[in-house]
Amino acid sequence: MTRSFYLYFKEIFHKPTRQEWDILKLAEPRFEKEYIFSIFLTHFIVYSLLLVPPFFEIRWDILPYLLGITIIRFVLLLQFYTKSIPLEKVIYVSGLFADGLVYLVFLKGIQHFPTLGNFYLLNSYLMSFIIPILLYSTRLKPMGCVISALYLSFFHISYNLQLPSEIANTTSFFSQYFLLFVYLGSGLLGVVFVLNKRKDTADMYSLSEERRFMLQELQLAKRVQDALFPGNIKIPNLTFTFYRKSPNVIGGDFFDFVQLREGNVGVFLTDVAGHGISSAMVASIMKVLVSTIPYRFKTAPAKLMDYLDDRLANDLDKYHASAIYLFFDFIEKKLIIGNAGHPYLILAKKGEEFTELETQGAILGFNIKIPPISEKTLPIAKGDRFFIYTDGLIESMDHEGNSLGTEGLLALLNRHRNSDNVKELENNLLFELKTKFGLDTFSDDTMFLILEVEE
């Protein structure tokens, strides 16, 4: 515990570096404004003296002093905007004169009503001077609290030296001067506040700079990742549209087309576990792996998935991913599917409802191959539609805490299965997801791809 306090005070009392000085200079005007506005508003508290004993008996005598305080504080407020004189000097001079006028008011009070009760009552009022002392801690100047404590201590000594003799002779030294300890203690406490604020200000600025740098890096990474996705390309015999959303700017959901000879095409979609930069990098690596994989694997989804499983397990042993690969063979009019732990393919033959196609396959990266990745083959014809997606779509919660789920997704697709084209189908899905289900923003990386056979 003692060592913790030592380290804490050592940290806040350290001499600022040049970079920290520059940061404090930038932040200083905002804190000066905060102090000036605070002291201007709080000085109106002194008008409450007109209503409390013994001052209400001499309220017309002390009112000019209180108005003088208001004028001084108003000049300080005005000076913040004009800055014709160095602001720091005006702050200290205005504090000196304003607090001096308050002490003159208290001196008038005790001299007009020199009773022991009033002496202790006024001392309790004078305790409130810790407020202007501590208000200096809203600035970034540690000496402000000390200067305020010192001149208030001077005023208090002068006040006690001018006490009526009947009061001075009947009260103890401690009762007369204990407020000096209060003022000086408040000044030291204010210094700690200021030094702590300076440290926090420098730390927050550094963190904000780091955050700004990271956001710039993320935006750059997003542009790079966006460039990896298929753009407005023409895929023979297929029309497609896709939607993707990541709460972390970039994410691990990715898809790509693998264009093959004879006009055939493969469609690869993966969902790398995790979020953010690391999963996005693994997804990019998987794009490279799929692009450079031997040709014989590109026409055999099960072999392609086995290859990716081995590479992830051996080269990136801390990451795993689900994936699905569709190989469209337009020569033989068939589709071969390989699924590695990914949500099932949803398909609709022309004029029919959307249904799930169950497939077997273990998630990639663990090299367990249980269950083994098995291929499924089905015929294709013009107008057939296929929907593949990542689980963020069905796991996201609406405002009532209900997830869409697979059944909800199937029902949603079938409500809009008569959409004229895949783009219209996408728009209808998104509209209902955002309005009826409240899924305006998805909590997880989310992607779906809609495909339709043209020929």
TrEMBL record:
It holds the Pfam family SpoIIE. Gene3D superfamilies: PPM-type phosphatase domain (3.60.40.10). The chain crosses the membrane at residues 35-56, 62-81, 90-107, 119-136, 143-161, 173-195. Keywords: Hydrolase, Membrane, Transmembrane, Transmembrane helix. GO terms for molecular function: phosphatase activity. SMART domains: PP2C_SIG. The keyword Transmembrane applies. Residues 235-453 form the PPM-type phosphatase domain. This is Serine/threonine-protein phosphatase.
